[in-house]
């Protein structure tokens, strides 16, 4: 692919990236070829999935352009290397195999450690850890529970939405869920989990300077722009600087407790694995291990 063709290619990609930035996961592109060098191909879907949701068209295009150029350069260097030194022979194969084995070992140990230790750490243990060391879970951000709806400004039944979104009653929630299926651009129910206030406010055309005061004085917030109406109901909140609620801190607690026990667990696991293999005869020694151990003494 020549430099002459790159701007045209990127221009076509820009539209794809802009659509992705605007519609997020709602847009699914076909995995068609974007760049090809001999047998090596780069698809549009590979590039667009690298674009962070919410990126501007300009940022999306810059990210795409940089990635495409890097991909092309990497392939060209690989082809030059392959021409000059071949496939690397036995040394490359050995290094590749060692790396594959190391990745597989690490992947297995990570999964095994997490699964085994998670099962060993009881809910009572986690709650005790939280009570004894709660100061380590001081929030750096504001958390809320609630409901958020973004509806086109010309959507029907907005007066009903204004009544429903303020209530946590089952019938109101069911009504707004049914309504959102066919009318809402965004519907998020999070009465049962904590969300970062900043993350929610980014979805609304609203500027908040004193967020703690905002939370103390607002429960049902409605705002509009030229295209959408935005509805946010806040059922509960915790301000930055407070101790995080247990259910929010729980994943961090579990991960911390796993890491604290990980070293001893792995040491015991490896030692037991070694002893069992030797005892069962799965390992064949071509030297006298007892004599060798005596020499070390």
TrEMBL record:
Residues of the signal peptide: 1-23
Keywords: Signal
Taxonomic superkingdom: Bacteria
Protein's name in the database: Peptidyl-prolyl cis-trans isomerase
């Amino acid at each position: 692919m020549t430099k002459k063709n790159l701007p045209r290619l990127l221009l076509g990609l820009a539209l794809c990236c802009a659509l992705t930035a605007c519609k997020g996961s709602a847009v699914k592109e076909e995995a068609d070829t974007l760049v090809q060098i001999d047998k090596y191909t780069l698809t549009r879907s590979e590039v667009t999935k690298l674009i962070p949701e919410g990126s501007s068209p300009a940022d999306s295009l810059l990210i795409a352009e940089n990635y495409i150029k890097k991909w092309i350069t990497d392939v060209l260097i690989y082809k030059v290397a392959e021409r000059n030194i071949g496939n690397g022979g036995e040394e490359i194969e050995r290094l590749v195999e060692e790396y594959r084995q190391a990745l597989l070992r690490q992947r297995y140990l990570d999964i095994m450690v997490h699964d085994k230790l998670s099962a060993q750490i009881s809910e009572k243990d986690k709650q005790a850890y939280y009570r004894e060391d709660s100061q380590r879970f001081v929030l750096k951000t504001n958390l809320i529970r609630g409901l958020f709806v973004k509806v086109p400004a010309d959507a029907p039944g907005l007066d009903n939405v204004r009544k429903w979104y303020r209530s946590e009653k089952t019938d109101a929630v069911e009504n707004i869920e049914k309504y959102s299926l066919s009318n809402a651009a965004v519907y998020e129910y999070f009465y049962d989990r904590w969300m970062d206030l900043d993350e929610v406010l980014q979805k609304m055309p609203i500027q908040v300077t004193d967020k703690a005061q905002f939370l103390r004085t607002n429960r049902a917030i409605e705002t509009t722009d030229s295209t959408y109406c935005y509805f946010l109901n806040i059922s509960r909140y915790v301000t930055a600087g407070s101790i995080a609620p247990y259910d929010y801190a729980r994943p961090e607690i579990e991960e911390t407790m796993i890491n604290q026990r990980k070293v001893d667990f792995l040491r015991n696991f490896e030692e037991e694995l070694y002893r069992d293999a030797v005892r069962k005869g799965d390992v064949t020694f071509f030297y006298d291990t007892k004599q060798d151990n005596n020499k070390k003494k």
